Amino acid sequence: MLQEQLFKKTLDEVQGHLTWLHLYFQGEPFLNPRFLEMVAYANSKRIFTSTSTNAHYLQEKQVAEILHSGLKQLIVSMDGITQEIYEKYRVGGNLEKVQEGLKLLLAERKKSGQNFPRVVLQFLVTGQNEHQLPELKRWAERMQVDELQLKTTQIYDFENGSELIPSDLGYSRYVPAGNGKWKLKKRLENKCWRMWQGAVSTWDGKIVPCCFDKDAQYVMGELKAQSLEFIWSSLPYQNFRKQLLSDRSQIEICRNCTE
Ligand code: SF4
Known about the structure:
Helices cover about 30% and strands about 15% of the residues. It is of the alpha/beta class. The strands form three sheets. The chain has a five-stranded parallel β-sheet, covered by helices on one side. The protein is flat, with a radius of gyration of 20 Å.
């Protein structure tokens, strides 16, 4: 779990440079009991804060604390509009809890007269849920969420196809390659704007290039021992960027990325 002391030390170092902070990476942020205190700290430094949740922890107390924390954006993941479809992807999840939490947050935000957090409903479109899109759109409109995001899904072993690939390829990162195989829809180009725009920290302060590095294979440095400024210009980071610009296909995480 991300330690508040490390978080504050890092923010103190980067304030004045950092404008946007997404407090989320491979986990449920609301499981950290100090999470909203960290949001409030970032907010006090005038940094835009955003997070992403499975919305299983939006009870009265948390909703009041969210509104008080200064959180600017909350992305709620909901990948189905019926329990049966929802739990295909969110195994063990409870759709009713998600929907009740979301309703409570929106109602309390309205009561408070605040515009924040902005509520984004995010739906990963898969072959299992794409038929629910019309119903989803009606529900999102009724709820008056600020934005409905329909997101394409990353699939690890896409080459052999997957039931997660939607039949509407407009919602797919992959297209048939012939011989029953699949390939990335977008041609791999030796570029990546992310390498000059931001970085990702794991819960224990390892800096990795982006959120595709889910298992921290490409560690550029450690916040526990180095400043972010130092890591940003360090040799491992420079070499990673050079490799990406010369031949992205040599970097494992970049091979399945539409950037
Ligand atoms: S996987 Fe590679 S190309 Fe994609 S965002 Fe990360 S660093 Fe950039």
